[in-house]
Design a protein that fits this description.
The chain is an alpha+beta fold. The chain contains five helices and twelve strands. The longest helix is centred in the last third of the chain and has 19 residues.
Length: about 300
């Protein structure tokens, strides 16, 4: 009988499983950490100007050791009865009150010395939230949860050619700020191109105030977010259900650091949106804007 048709375990396999010792190999603790992003709406102070946007990331201040007092990504340990995705969604709801956010796995980090408590492997995720949905909370191991403005730019870039490979190195300057709190980090990204593909590694050069290796995870998340906005149109996940195109455009510009022309932008997103009969509430100095919503069928991909 073929293996696909058989639902019974053979006696040999039963014997193997009975004698199998899971404790024979060291097992790490498993955690799920989330880089939760939103785009906030900042009043311009001038009624003639449109509201500007600011990319923000959610951080929590640790109330317990290790890294007590430092800021970290929200998250927690994965229980034995849940998947990575279930744990990430649970912790996201606990921190923000949001139950249906965009959630995408970023990378699994497993450096042996990343946590003083022992070998802890973390599956990191990117979450995107419309800022109007938020209800910030704090877990039992955190003293506060706050939104930090994100400043992230390339400080230095070099490219070297070697025999059979090329190496590009970038040093990123990252500043996360909330009121008077400023967290400064420098992260080096090394990309090696060779005959068999591409290898990317990250190193924390400087870190002031972020716990564990979260400066590296945040840098990876910001870089991936830029890629996803550019090629996967995830900026829609930072909008409410109905939105003016000017808001969507400013979210693209905020994250990518570009200056999109209105007409070019409208042509680019035309297949992705559906025009509604709704209008925004009239603001002083501005006419009401036509509201659009996402064209769900345009997001299937291949």
């Amino acid at each position: 009988m073929s293996q696909t048709k058989s639902k019974n375990i053979s006696e040999t396999e039963k014997s193997f499983l009975k004698d199998y010792d899971r404790k024979k190999f060291d097992a790490p603790s498993i955690a799920a950490d989330m880089a939760v992003f939103t785009v906030s709406y900042i009043p311009s102070g001038n009624y003639r100007k449109l509201t500007s946007k600011q990319l923000q990331i959610l951080l929590v201040q640790r109330a317990d050791y290790p890294e007590k007092g430092k800021y970290a990504l929200p998250g927690g340990f994965v229980q034995s009865n849940e998947t990575f995705e279930q744990a990430a969604a649970k912790h996201l709801e606990n921190e923000t009150g949001v139950t249906n956010a965009y959630l995408s796995q970023l990378q699994t980090v497993s450096d042996l010395n990343r946590d003083k408590r022992g070998w802890i492997v973390s599956a990191s995720y990117i979450a995107l939230i419309d800022s109007f949905q938020l209800e910030l909370k704090s877990g039992k191991h955190q003293s506060s949860a706050e939104w930090f403005d994100v400043y992230f730019e390339i400080e230095k870039e070099t490219t070297e050619d070697f025999e059979g490979k090329a190496v590009r190195t970038r040093v990123y300057n990252m500043v996360l700020s909330c009121g008077e709190v400023k967290l400064n980090s420098k992260i080096k990204q090394t990309v090696e191109f060779n005959m068999i593909g591409k290898n990317i590694s990250y190193e924390i050069l400087e870190n002031d105030g972020l716990a564990f290796d979260h400066a590296k995870i945040i840098a990876m998340a910001i870089i991936e977010l830029k890629r996803k906005v550019k090629y996967e149109n995830v900026a829609f996940n930072l909008c409410p259900e109905y939105f003016p195109l000017s808001d969507l455009q400013s979210i693209y510009e905020c994250i990518l650091g570009t200056n999109e022309g209105a007409s070019n932008f409208r042509r680019k997103v035309k297949p992705l949106v559906v025009q509604t009969e709704e209008y925004s509430k009239e603001n002083s100095g501005h006419r009401p804007s036509r509201l659009f919503k996402r064209n769900e069928s345009a997001f299937f991909g291949d």
